[in-house]
TrEMBL record:
Keywords assigned by UniProt, alphabetized: Amino-acid transport, Membrane, Transmembrane, Transmembrane helix, Transport
Domain Amino acid transporter transmembrane: 45-406
Subcellular locations according to the entry: Membrane
Pfam families xref list: Aa_trans, DUF707
Stated name of the protein: Lysine ketoglutarate reductase trans-splicing related 1
CDD domains listed in its UniProt record: MPP_Nbla03831
Lineage: Eukaryota, Viridiplantae, Streptophyta, Embryophyta, Tracheophyta
Organism of derivation: Musa troglodytarum
TM segment ranges: 51-71, 77-104, 125-145, 165-183, 192-212, 232-252, 273-293, 359-379, 385-404
Length: 1047
């Protein structure tokens, strides 16, 4: 029975490297790093409770006073409650989804536009920027209008001749400006959240009390939906827009950026608070208002309250004050973008220079926003409608696009993804200069367009099949004994044609050669070839053929070129075609230089004979006897493309590069030794590979010939896929497929079962494990000691959370014994022995539970590079990499960890006693501080995230680590906040010359002098390498290199 399944394989330089939460960063994605820059605002500081409270109070601002009128009056009870529930649920799920995309491939995206730009390219970055900032500016206008109404209502309680609304709008703008100036960031709102919560509870309690009173007194409630049919439809759309606006913000990544790690789990906790407590409150007020006043409920609920003056004043006062806090959350991304662009990032937010700049920036934002709102105070409905159009893609479309883009690459096998390169989306900004009603239609078109451009719809698709080798003869075997089903191969082809036609979207098909078998009787060769070609002609589209050796066994190439309708170039069997502007297919003739297919005295035949005579010592040139390795490819049934075809290929690749086309190369013979057996390779495959490697446009090479199939990705990221032979499919099985071609990947859907198993290739598995099913892959380990008996899941009574390593010699046993006792059972102890003495340590009871690694005369960085791979120590939250000559009398490990977490330090060390031992001035303990900044490499403590970066920076041949401390800041951001010395927990450097004395005396120098000289050399080498690497990176990005940051 046929069974289809997607099989995908990925290009290492493309977006397939994306993965949720973890993984390695894709090389190509470095092109997007310009989006992920330092922020002027605080990142990674707030608790989920703080953010959850901000969401609840922010969304529960006085804006809810309009919801009864906006959301329920146009819809009525049934549709209103249904839309509230459905849109609320969808908004919750969409934000839940988006929160999971905050970290992709180790990159943390603190801005929505950065995320979209990273995944889809620069134009998507700017589209997101436009939609988000329009949403936020419109939302801020709504808040200004709301605050103005609240002030106007307060004024009306005390004045018989109230001022115009515009006056209160201007006053609101001034208050918002002052608040934004004094409270510059979202994180800085923490001190106002308690006040905000009190305000929210106050106006909710008073409001609900008055609503209940008014609702009971109102005996003439009218819940009918009024207006013409057209008005009802448009009002209903407006209501849905209002529900959408009240449920989401379009700035979730920016809010999430303030959270401490784990950012995804913490954000989802905050979202649950918003969509339970928060939703209950603002839905509750909306429903209560509609219940109390029916269809006559005001667009600003306090207008209708019948309560005492103090009640109305209190409600409107708290509403105004709460709107001040709420608008700040919605306006924060705009402030962050301007502050990051124009403020001095090396100075504090309240430095003299930044205070002046912030004054101008905040004045600009609120001046323009307030002016427009005062000019058009009637535009509340427009704000809701247009805001919903900008929020819809931000909330529902974009997260789904990113999620699908990422999750496509994490599907269970059989999965086979060819990802080519990260592309820039061709998305039209359809919302510019359009009226909001027309934008609704355009938004639907935009969603459909983005579905294609975002990777949901292929650009085109085509069918693939190889080595049909049909012959009307009994079944047989290959020379190696593999069964061959000559007649059944026609049924496989017929099944392929039927499937391709059923697909209805295949633009063409490709046959990778050998449509008839060499054992076909020669008097039936022509009619057999015609029969197979006739079957291919049943396909609803063109078929592009390649000539294989079995084809040439039956008919001369001149006849085959005509029968197969090859788009021949001067009688050659190589050609190219372009199914769409962005792609080019190049079909090579693997038998241009060959002993078969050409007349006996043809120059190409003679050239092939010379090659075989030189390379194959056997009289039977189809025999590989006595040949070794890749020499076995020089067999008579193979061939070469030759110099003339290589020149043609070079011209084709130049033209493709000029026209920015991706190239797929097709050839009957495989082009890479890791994708096929040596006996199946093209003779001059090395020349072809060298040529295509000199260009960046070639993305994949497809071939046949080697019937078992194969796959590899070469050193330049080019995918080589050899297709299985239809000939070797037993009855009731198949071997064919089709390929969906996207802007950034090829997805091969294979339909074959003849090996009674599916090939597994999962590119998101760790390198080397791609052929394993993901659920069996265990990429991380630990140093936990396990029993040799019992149940594995009962081995660990305690799972240590921290790892401590000392590089030791036995002479320091007493000092290490005292040091180890400072660490609780929460710490795994690992000793690196540079003197080779390990068993003597068993005199200490703790040593029997410690890990011992021995290698003579090596440093701690040599050990760390070889034994502390980030995947090995991934279970540990913090890794201590310490010297042996440290006094820990004043050190408490558990308290140290608490301080590190409190201050958010990713790289740290204890303070060093200033009056004992030898140390740098900058690392000496300061008695009036808990922490201060800078660390050296003597007693460093790394978080696991920081260590993953630092481990990769440690050079394999530089063993002393000198200069590393000055480069540690490259592994955390912002470094000035996440690197520090913990002064409240200090140690003593005892300056014991242990390993330093184990050098070798040379040229009259003492052993320690040789070691010290090596240290200095390594420092210089490391500085040079890092500086050169930075410079090379910037040049590769087309950026003029900045001055090296290595000091």
């Amino acid at each position: 029975m046929d069974q289809a399944g997607p099989t995908e394989f990925g290009v290492g330089n493309g977006v397939e490297a994306l993965s949720l939460e973890s993984g390695q960063a894709p090389a190509e994605s470095q092109k997007q790093q310009e989006y992920v820059i330092t922020s002027a605002h605080a990142v990674d500081k707030d608790s989920w409770q703080q953010v959850g409270l901000m969401l609840v109070t922010g969304f529960n601002c006085a804006y809810v006073f309009s919801f009864s009128n906006l959301m329920l009056v146009p819809l009525g009870w049934a549709w209103g409650l249904t839309c509230l529930a459905v849109i609320g649920a969808f908004a919750c799920y969409a934000n839940w989804l988006l929160s999971g995309l905050h970290v992709i491939d180790g990159h943390r995206f603190i801005r929505y536009r950065d995320l979209m730009g990273f995944v889809f390219g620069r134009r998507m970055y700017y589209l997101t920027w436009f939609l988000q900032f329009m949403t936020l500016l419109l939302g801020n206008m709504g808040f200004i209008l709301l605050g103005g109404r609240a002030l106007k209502e307060i004024n009306s309680e005390f004045s018989n001749s109230p001022l115009r609304l515009q006056v209160f709008i201007l006053a609101t703008g001034v208050v918002y400006f002052i608040f934004a100036y004094l409270v510059p960031t979202m994180s800085a709102m923490r001190n106002w959240l308690a006040t905000s919560a009190v305000l929210t509870v106050t106006y909710v309690v008073v409001l609900v009390a008055i609503l209940v009173k008014d609702g009971k007194a109102n005996k003439t409630k009218d819940y009918n939906i009024h207006g013409s049919e057209v008005e009802k439809v448009f009002n209903a759309f407006g209501a849905i827009a209002a529900i959408l606006v009240c449920n989401t913000s379009g700035l979730l990544p920016e809010i999430q950026s303030t959270l401490r790690k784990p950012v995804v789990a913490n954000m989802r906790k905050a979202l649950m608070m918003q969509y339970t407590v928060g939703l209950a409150v603002y839905y509750g007020i909306s429903i209560a208002g509609y219940w109390a006043y029916g269809s006559s409920v005001s667009e600003y609920l306090p207008y209708q309250l019948s309560g005492p003056r103090w009640g109305n004043v209190l409600i409107n006062s708290t509403a105004f004050l709460q709107s001040v806090v709420s608008q700040h959350m919605f306006c924060a991304p705009i402030h962050e973008a301007l502050d990051t662009k124009f403020q001095k990032l090396d100075e504090g937010m309240f430095s003299k220079a930044n205070l002046g700049r912030r004054f101008a920036l905040r004045a600009l934002v609120f001046g323009l926003n307030t002016f427009v709102t005062a000019l058009f105070p009637f535009m509340g409905d427009f704000v809701n409608l247009f805001g919903s159009f900008t929020l819809f893609p931000l909330t529902f479309v974009f997260p789904s696009m990113v999620f699908i883009k990422v999750r496509q690459l994490l599907l269970p096998p059989p999965l086979f993804l060819l990802s080519l390169s990260q592309e820039i989306l061709e998305v039209e900004l359809v919302l510019v200069n359009r009226d909001p009603i027309g934008s609704a239609r355009d938004l639907l078109q935009l969603a459909a367009q983005m579905a294609t451009l975002g990777g949901l719809q292929p650009l085109f698709s085509f069918g693939v099949i190889s080595d049909v080798q049909y012959a009307d003869i009994p079944d047989g075997h290959s020379f190696s004994g593999v069964p061959r089903y000559y007649r059944h191969s026609m049924q496989v082809l017929q099944g392929a044609i039927s499937k391709w036609n059923d697909h209805k979207k295949l633009q063409f098909s490709m046959n990778f050669g050998d449509i008839v078998d060499g054992f076909c009787p020669k008097d039936k060769s022509l009619i057999t070839v015609q029969k197979v070609v006739k079957e291919f002609d049943r396909f609803n589209g063109p078929t592009y053929h390649m000539i294989g050796n079995h084809c040439l066994y039956n008919l001369p190439r001149s006849k085959l070129i005509s029968l197969l309708k090859l788009p021949s170039i001067h009688g050659h069997a190589y050609y190219d075609f372009s199914p769409c502007p962005g792609y080019r297919f190049i079909v090579l003739d693997a038998y241009e230089i060959s002993t078969i297919g050409w007349p006996q005295g043809h120059p190409n035949t003679l050239a092939a004979m010379q090659i075989l005579e030189a390379k194959n010592p056997n009289s039977d040139k189809n025999s590989p006897n006595g040949m070794v390795g890749l020499e076995k490819r020089f067999l008579k049934f193979n061939g070469a493309v030759g110099k003339e075809q290589l020149l043609w290929l070079d011209d084709a690749l130049k033209d493709s590069t000029k026209n920015e086309q991706k190239v797929v190369i097709c050839c009957h013979l495989p082009l890479h030794p890791k994708a096929a057996s040596a006996k199946a390779l093209l003779w001059d495959y090395e020349d072809v590979l060298n040529l295509i490697h000199s260009y960046k446009c070639v993305k994949a090479c497809f071939a046949g010939h080697d019937h078992k199939g194969g796959y590899t990705v070469d050193s330049h990221g080019i995918h080589h896929r050899v297709f299985e032979a239809a000939l070797e499919c037993p009855p009731e099985s198949n071997a064919y497929g089709y390929i969906d071609v996207y802007r950034d990947r090829l997805s091969l859907i294979v339909i074959y079962t003849y090996r009674n198993c599916y090939m597994i290739y999962v590119p998101t598995n760790p390198r080397g494990a791609e052929r394993l099913p993901p659920c069996i892959v265990v990429p991380e380990s630990d140093f936990y000691l396990r029993r040799l008996w019992g149940n594995p899941d009962e081995d660990l009574i305690v799972q240590q959370k921290y790892l401590v390593t000392f590089t030791v010699g036995y002479e320091q046993k007493n000092n290490i014994d005292a040091a180890v006792k400072k660490f609780s059972e929460n710490f795994t102890i690992l000793l690196f022995h540079y003197d080779g003495r390990t068993t003597e340590w068993d005199e200490f009871e703790w040593s029997k539970r410690a890990i011992h690694v021995s290698a003579r005369k090596q440093t701690k960085w040599w050990y760390a590079k070889r034994f502390l791979h980030p995947d090995i120590v991934a279970r540990y939250e913090y890794i201590f990499i310490w010297d042996e000559d440290l006094g820990l009398e004043h050190f408490d490990a558990e308290e140290y960890i608490k301080l590190v977490k409190k201050h958010g330090l990713e790289i740290s060390q204890p303070g060093l006693e200033p009056n004992n031992g030898l140390t740098w001035q900058m690392t000496k303990r300061r008695g009036d501080h808990e922490v201060h900044k800078f660390v050296e490499i003597m007693a460093t403590v790394f978080s696991r995230d920081a260590w993953r970066c630092v481990w990769h920076m440690i050079q394999n041949d530089l063993v002393h680590g000198w200069g590393l401390d000055f480069a540690l800041r490259k592994c955390v951001e912002p470094a000035h906040e996440k690197i520090g010395v913990v002064d409240a927990q200090w140690i003593v450097h005892q300056v014991v010359p242990s390993l330093g004395n184990q050098g070798q005396a040379e040229k009259g120098k003492a052993p320690w002098e040789g070691v010290r000289e090596r240290c200095r050399k390594e420092w210089a080498i490391f500085q040079s390498r890092l500086s050169d690497a930075e410079r090379a990176y910037y040049l590769s990005m087309g950026i003029a290199p900045r001055n090296s940051t290595v000091t």
